[in-house]
Structures are given as structure tokens and as C-alpha cells.
Amino acid sequence: MKGKGQKEPVTEEYYLYGGKVLVLIEVQTRLPLAMKLVPIQDYEGKWLVPLLEQAQQNLGTHAHIETIVVDRGYLDGEDLWRVHQKGVIFVICGKATMAVTQDAQGLAKGERAIVRERVVRRGHGKTAKDQRLRTELVGLEALTSYDQYGDAEYTPTAHRNDYVGQPINAVVVRTWENRVPTTGGTVYLTNGAVRDPFVVFDTYDWRSVIENGIFKEGKHPWHLLNFPKRTEAAVVVHCHLTLLVMGMTTAFRLWQKQQASAPTALTEVLPTLSSALLGGEGIPSSHPHPPFLSRLSTGRSSALWYQPLILISQRQLLLKGITPIRVKSTHKP
Question: Which domain holds residue 189?
């Protein structure tokens, strides 16, 4: 920064205050299981085990966490060992400067790779061609060069000559879709089986769900970064409430999908859209009216319920194979 009439630039220091959201989700349903809001300067690695314990506590006896996919920011040998002691399988990407990563890359060059190929169509029309994409992986077992991987009381003695590290498995990507890496290949560290390395490879691919399904979606449609106030209490309440509503919405959509796969009381009682909009006319008197119809009334209140009722009925009728009817209604406010 340069002031008026000043020859030498002046360096100004800025202090940023904030926090970061750490989330553990179930990747197939995208339901958040645990969340921590920590200061922005905190190291993520120390929150791995607390997040896992909170998620399991929230699940209770309904489910047990068997496998977790971890971002590289949580890479800490002692924490990963604690996860292993809990009987949970982890998959994490190793750093290029780690000894265990370099050892895995060197050993993978002399090992037989497991190959998977798939054919994709490139181009359009007459110029379209089939291309065969080849991926080569190597699974390595019982690597002991990760000195930090172990009990907190045992790892400080890693400098001793008689120190032997805890065994950990690795999967090395030698070729990914015909692309050969120039740095030795990505290395995934895991305590799970690597006889079929593509199991580990495909498991780690689920990590993109938390980036796209939670953070990107949370920032834009759900306004996760738009706090009502710049205070700690406002940020904490806003983040928890936003993820809570996101989870409830996701759960509702999953329930809605399950209901659409089989006939429900609503679709049986309301076979057409016109009968729903006419307050039950055309439905046999032996069938009771749906609960929401009793809440519909004339005047301004009906306008609040009218459009959602059309959307819900259209969606269910389309799934049932019945063409919906577009209906216009006029009323005085």
C-alpha cells in the first residue's frame, strides 16, 4: 500500500477472526451426522476422533459406523491409530513428503497392478469414437514407515534404532484413465484390506459428496455464509440451524422417494388432481378426507396452501402415470 506523497510502500497487517465448519456425513443419503464449529486457526486433525464419537453417539443403537473417508487436512498418525482401535476402517490420501508415501510409490513400481478398463464415447455424430480408458492400481500391505501412526506413548520413540512402526496398508495409483502421473502416483492409506485395491479407490471417491453436497450446496442455495450477525452466538446458531434444515429436507426427500415407489393413502384416496382441488368431490364417501384438506379454507389462507398442493399432487400423479390437469383459480383477497 502506498500513501499520497510516500515513496516506500507500507505493509499493513490485518487480523481475521472467524471459524470453520467440520462436518461428518453419511455419503449415500447425504445426511449430516455430526458437526463442529471451531476457530479458523485450529488444526482439523485433532477433531477427527471427537467428530466420529459425536456421530456415533447421535446414531445410538440405530447404526454403527464401519468406514470413514477422511480429507487430507485430518492426516494425523495418532488420531488415525485411535480410529483403528475403535474398529473403524479409514481411507485417507497421503502427502507426497511422507516417508510411507515415497516407500509405497517405490515398491509399487515392481509389483503387479490390478487393471480396470472402461469404454467411453467421445465426440458427436460421425466423428464420435470409442476410447478405452485404463486404470492401474497396486495394493501394498503392512508398510511400517509411517512413524507417527501408533499410540501417543509409543510414537515419540520413533528416532530409536529398534523402533518398528505400526503396519498400515496403501493403494498406489500407477495409471488413472490412461494418464500416468509424473510424481509417482497418488497414495491412499488405509487400515482396510487392499487385495482388491479398487474397493479402496472407489471408497475414497465418495469424499467429493461432502464438497458438493454439503459445502457448495450449503453456501449458495442455503446461504451458509450469510450470518444474521457477526457474533459468535449468531454464527453458531446459524450454522447448526442451516445444517439441521438441510438434513431435514434431505430426509424428507428420501421419504418422498420411498413413498413414490409404492401406493400411498394419498394417491389411493386422490386418484386425480381435480378431486383434490374440488375438496374431495368425486371421492367415495367411505374414504375420509386427507388431513391437509381440512385445513384449506377460502380467502387469503387458501392462497398459502394452494400452489404447494398442486405441486405435490402433480408429482405424485406423474409417478402414478396419470396426466395432471392444469387448473386456474381466482378468489378475492
Answer: 87-203
